Amino acid sequence: MLRIAGANIPEKKQIEVALTYIFGIGPSLSRKILKELKIDPFKKASALTMEEISRLRNEIEKKCKTEGELKRQIMTDIKRLKEIRCWRGIRHIKNLPARGQRTKTNTRTVRGNVRKTVGSGRKPAPGPT
Hints:
Elements: E1 2-4, E2 7-9, H1 15-18, H2 27-37, H3 50-63, H4 67-83, H5 87-93, H6 108-111
Antiparallel strand pairs: 1-2
Helix pairs in contact: 4-5
């Protein structure tokens, strides 16, 4: 299995799709990187030569924040929002949606308000004693 930037890349997929398995690289960035390096995006990951793999590795490490580095940056950004007590930071502290989603109906599980479905409300007739 191929490893680039600390992530395992599936060998049976096209390299354009396989690069998206790296945290921080999406489809458009994957296409852009392959276009710069002049690598065929439809080539399978297993069909890449060692030279292409090394160029790909160098390009990703040089230009992109991926995996652990990106996750650390996201954590510090959220921590900063919490410390300055801005709206988004407060939403993160309370474990509520921070991007403007409605919370009256759609986030019951996040708010801890899980309603059970109720039957008709009628109690069964008492049985003989």
